[in-house]
Design a protein that fits this description.
Strand content: over 45%
Distance between the termini: 34 Å
CATH class: Mainly Beta
Structural class: alpha+beta
Shape: globular
CATH architecture: Roll
Largest sheet: 9 strands, antiparallel
Radius of gyration: 15 Å
Order of helices and strands: HHEEEEHEEEEE
Helix content: 10-25%
Number of strands: 9
CATH superfamily: Electron Transport, Fmn-binding Protein, Chain A
């Protein structure tokens, strides 16, 4: 698993795009896995990319308990306005990085980064990604 700093060194363009998307909106969507295996999607404000890492800050909640039991997660940040622009997703495993009675902090060991946006050349959909298993990739596909 990779730190954000390692991804930024390997894929500076992709990491800067993802950071810009994450920085443009306060609210993101966190996906965790419930005890029974079903996904839990939660809107959160405590997700950020800074100091070479992806961070989550959560109040005591079902999603924090999900991560304590099964660290697999994804954080998605959509376009900052009503018009479709770029969206970004970071997936990996949450590692506890400090707990207080009213707050739990996690660092994400990153396994995947995906940025989806309009392709500036063709106007179609541009999907760019990095995965721990296979590195960087890029795909332009029709929108719809």
């Amino acid at each position: 698993m990779a730190s954000w700093a390692a991804i930024a060194a390997d894929q500076p363009g992709l990491s800067k795009l993802a950071e810009a998307v994450f920085g443009a909106r306060r609210l993101k969507t966190l996906a965790t896995i419930r005890r029974g295996g079903m996904p839990r999607l939660s809107e959160i404000s405590g997700a950020s990319i800074r100091d070479g890492e992806v961070w989550l800050g959560l109040i005591p909640s079902a999603k924090a308990r999900d991560l304590a039991r099964d660290p697999r997660c994804a954080v998605h940040c959509g376009s900052p306005g009503d018009e479709w622009a770029a969206s970004a997703r970071v997936s990996g495993r949450a590692v506890p990085a400090g707990t207080e009675p009213s707050f739990a902090r996690f660092r994400i060991d990153v396994e995947e980064v995906v940025v989806t946006r309009p392709d500036p050349e063709s106007g179609q959909i541009l999907v760019e990604w990095w995965t721990e298993a296979s590195g960087a990739g890029r795909l332009v596909r029709p929108g719809g």
